[in-house]
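Incident review: delayed structure delivery

Summary: a single-chain prediction request sat in the queue longer than the usual turnaround. Root cause was a stuck worker, restarted by the on-call engineer. No data loss occurred. The affected request and its eventual output are reproduced below so the record is complete for anyone auditing the incident later.

Affected input:
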Amino acid sequence: MRVFVHVKDRSGAELRNIELEFDQVPAVGEYFVLDTDDVYYQAEIVVHVPTRIANCVAEVYGVPVKFNKLIAKYTEIRYPVPPQTW
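Output delivered after worker restart:
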């Protein structure tokens, strides 16, 4: 599916507009990348567009996220860990 993607750079100063091919349109809150060694983005707004008025099925607005913070958020150990009683 053709998707029109709008993403900001890390500083938030520059907006990139790119048409890309996706297997599935990213949903709000999901993460996506534009290339294999690119920045991770989080979809903030998704607008579905009828194909009769555009050659894209959706527009996605994404903001950059820091990959290390994202991974740490989901892999951190939650404390306090209950004591083991044997």
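Verification: The chain has a mean pLDDT of 83.
Action items: add queue-age alerting; document worker restart procedure.
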